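Quick review question:
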């Protein structure tokens, strides 16, 4: 379809990637976001090969490699410091045909903003409603302004307003049962190997570090907690208490992190949705499939959405509504599978069934890497750019 105009609601990873892909397809694109300053949620993200391949196809491969971390190995360690398994990711990379790149979210967002044009994103535009006719769709903003195009893309995240319009009802987020602290620290061999993703496990908890650009580690610390548990006033003291007795690198990490720049997040997901599309309106990213981060696929799935949505519009002459239905068919089952697998893995990691979690720890001690890499490659190779 020629001369199409797209309205993208949300300037996060998925929205900006969609905007870049659609503009490269020759479409007119307008991007709106409710915030007055773009600040990505979370400090870092593991960008696996299926997400990187989308960026490669958009001409952003070199830029991604320059901000991503050199993750060449994967290591699981017990809370006391015993190495359970340590293996090279080279067989995985060879199988899927692309390096993974852990990356700081701010760096990734800035890369996408630069590629699209930072001045072309209209901030301070809070979408409050959607309307459409047979010929066009309109986003309506809190200040009374409107943006009308041939298609509206809801990239407005886990609290999506566009999703409520598409489904005709509100959705409830589901607490995954654990709290995640995350941030960035300078990379140091005293903390972890600078080319490895290192994960300490024990008591249904995790402490992890992975390399990102500019010689830093992205870290996260997971603790299963009741939803009602509130943060303590002294974050460092709380983490020292919750990870008391863990190996020395974790004690050093907690001592080194900056509480003012460390995020504390109650992890949620949303049950798989029955629809992603209503007429000329489509959902992408967390608006369509909000998942727990335990497979590292949330961001990658948003990028897959962007690629598939753009290509369904490019490859049909039956109209926008037909193209969006094809997009929905291509994405619903894939993302539902990711949500449910991530949920199952989150339960196993975080001790929902203590016996199952203990079995996992024991299996890690005999793991050579093949099972883990096969599970990751299976997820990657089911994507649109395998």
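Suggested answer, residue by residue:
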């Amino acid at each position: 379809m020629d001369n199409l105009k797209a309205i993208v609601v949300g300037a996060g990873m998925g929205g900006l990637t969609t905007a870049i892909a659609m503009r490269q397809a020759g479409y007119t694109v307008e991007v709106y976001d409710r915030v007055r300053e773009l600040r990505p949620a979370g400090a870092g993200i593991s960008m696996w090969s299926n997400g990187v391949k989308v960026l490669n196809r958009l001409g952003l491969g070199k830029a991604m490699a320059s901000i991503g971390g050199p993750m060449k190995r994967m290591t699981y360690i017990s809370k006391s410091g015993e190495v359970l398994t340590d293996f090279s990711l080279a067989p995985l990379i060879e199988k899927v045909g692309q390096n993974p790149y852990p990356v700081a979210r701010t760096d990734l967002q800035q890369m996408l903003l630069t590629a699209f044009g930072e001045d072309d994103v209209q901030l301070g535009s809070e979408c409050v409603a959607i309307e459409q006719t047979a010929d066009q769709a309109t986003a309506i903003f809190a200040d009374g302004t409107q943006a009308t195009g041939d298609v509206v893309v809801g990239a407005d995240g886990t609290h999506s307003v566009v999703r409520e319009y598409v489904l005709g009802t509100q959705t409830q987020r589901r607490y995954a049962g654990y709290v995640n602290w995350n941030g960035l620290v300078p990379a140091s061999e005293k903390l972890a190997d600078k080319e490895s993703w290192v994960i300490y496990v024990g008591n249904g908890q995790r402490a992890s570090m992975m390399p990102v650009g500019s010689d830093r580690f992205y870290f996260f610390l997971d603790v299963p907690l009741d939803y009602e548990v509130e943060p303590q006033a002294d974050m460092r003291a709380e983490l020292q208490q919750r990870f008391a007795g863990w190996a020395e690198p974790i004690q050093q990490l907690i001592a080194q992190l900056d509480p003012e720049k460390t995020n504390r997040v109650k992890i949620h997901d949303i049950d798989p949705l029955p629809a992603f599309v209503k007429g000329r309106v489509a959902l992408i990213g967390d608006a369509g499939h909000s998942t727990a981060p335990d497979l590292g696929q949330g961001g990658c799935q948003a990028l897959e959405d962007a690629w598939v949505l753009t290509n369904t519009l490019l490859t049909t002459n039956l109209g926008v509504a037909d193209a969006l239905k094809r997009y929905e068919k291509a994405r619903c089952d894939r993302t539902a599978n990711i949500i449910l697998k991530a949920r199952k893995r989150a339960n196993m990691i975080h001790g929902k069934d203590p016996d199952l979690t203990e079995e996992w720890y024991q299996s890690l001690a005999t793991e050579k890497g093949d099972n883990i890499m096969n599970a990751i490659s299976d997820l990657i190779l089911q994507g649109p750019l395998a």
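Why it works: The chain is about 40% helix and 25% strand. The chain has one domain: 5-173+269-381.
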